[in-house]
Amino acid sequence: MTVARQVRLRARPVGLPDAGTWDVVDTELPALGDGEVLVRVTHLSLDPAMRGWLNDVRSYVPPVGVGEVMRAFGVGTVLASRSPEHAVGDAVSGITGVADHAVLRGSDLSPVDLAVASAPTWLGALSMPGLTAWFGLFDVARARPGETVLVSGAAGAVGSVVGQLATAHGCRVIGIAGGPEKTRWLTDELGFDAAIDYREGAVHRAVRAIAPEGVDVYFDNVGGEVLDSALRTLRRGARIALCGAISTYNATEPAPGPAHYMSLLVNRASMTGFVVFDYEDRYPEAIADLSARLRDGSLVARETVVRGGVDAFGDTLLMLFDGGNTGKLVLEL
Amino acid sequence: MTVARQVRLRARPVGLPDAGTWDVVDTELPALGDGEVLVRVTHLSLDPAMRGWLNDVRSYVPPVGVGEVMRAFGVGTVLASRSPEHAVGDAVSGITGVADHAVLRGSDLSPVDLAVASAPTWLGALSMPGLTAWFGLFDVARARPGETVLVSGAAGAVGSVVGQLATAHGCRVIGIAGGPEKTRWLTDELGFDAAIDYREGAVHRAVRAIAPEGVDVYFDNVGGEVLDSALRTLRRGARIALCGAISTYNATEPAPGPAHYMSLLVNRASMTGFVVFDYEDRYPEAIADLSARLRDGSLVARETVVRGGVDAFGDTLLMLFDGGNTGKLVLEL
Question: How much is the average pLDDT of B154-169?
């Protein structure tokens, strides 16, 4: 009998999640049914989207129910298997939940090749964040060589991949991030053409100084004032890919909308929302491309890895909302 | 020597234009140059977009300069011609400005066939409003038969054509307008499936009662609260065509943005701005289609025609902003 330590949703948070949001419980896992595997979870993905999953509203996935194990992507090792797809000792990834052990359907898990990349990278550049960047930039925003691409949350898991893909694609790339350390990393290590510290002043003024003709693509991970300011920098025919709005996820009052949205009309521009899960059929194509870029060094994967038990989940999650992480945030159990 | 009575911009308005906005002046027109024609203007088009042309901001056309004749589309009769394209007595349309006479380049004017439609219709369903509806619905919003189309400003020059085109295209059409007279007109005369009076309560609740599954297309002429409410009714894959924002044009403080814009993400939806002038190459195709619909009665053109001199321009323009007109607003000189 395996005992799993799990983080469950105790109460829906108002504003930032806190200690009252979570219960940490030890639970005896059931015996394996046919097609199931027992996984020891070694790495958990911490994502801004998690905050949205805590709200009881209609969204692109159902909310996590009160009392349920918190939803999370994870990487782990198969300890026991009644699934033909995964053998004991295999590394796998999937929605494991925030737990150190889990019984899962083998068909819901993907094999993970740790020779290609480390477990944290399999939760970042080779998982939802990397895929989100890939489909958002190429399919939703349809970035073309020679265009100017602006990306917010540029030092985050998604944004850092967006910028590097765009650079490799022949675009001129401007990243928006918080603080000089992150902006330096973008230009000096990742090859962004320019980076803006949104804490230093209005984003549209900084963009205009760098690209007076405006931007062709804006990849939005943050929403709020930065989105509103970015709208003022659009070039004719610009495309905004709407990926997230981390600046508003913990708001306790309705966040204001982007007042400059009529820039879409003046500039014959579009703003399009997307959810990476819709591209599931094409994940292999994107994973193959992202893996090749990692191998040849044209894509740098970076993760902020925090080591701790599942008990550390609640505190670690908050790093996402105070700018504490660079690249993908991972909890290594 | 011809004396033209002209309306010129005296001072840029803050909020609603008023008497201080305009100068009415009598001006001797110059002798005709080569390629020019003298036109007696008989009908002037009054458009919500005019309000935007008065602001000194970068937009899709330059602002009207202080001291300049107010920009306007008009229909008139050629009184004298040094242009091979137009003979004396011909009816023409184009940007005449707010004036009873004007000297214009013949190449900037289009012939108007008054056997096909009346002069007011040549400023409405067969001019910018009709073309805006046609390209916005078919090209920008890509409405498909069987889909649900929501349109605001539905009793206006653009919206009334959008709804009728969508109905004929096999869409289910819901119009939003102000007051029971207009909503009744939409359903009883124009064949809309349903109409909502936005003064009666939140638009999203009314839409949900009519189309619980949501809308595939939202054609926005009004902006403001109605746009924000409409965002809450989107169905997966919905398209918003952003045509105008009449509710905000006279605002003296920055109007709030659409707070529910993240509905675009949840529903994988898009919001796209457009300007009809970009479709100039394809006007003949659309005019031919709109004319055929007028002829066979499947499209009803309606205009509110005010009779008066150019002195009546300022007061007549205000009808657009207090809901005074149904269909296209025209000043007949």
Answer: 98
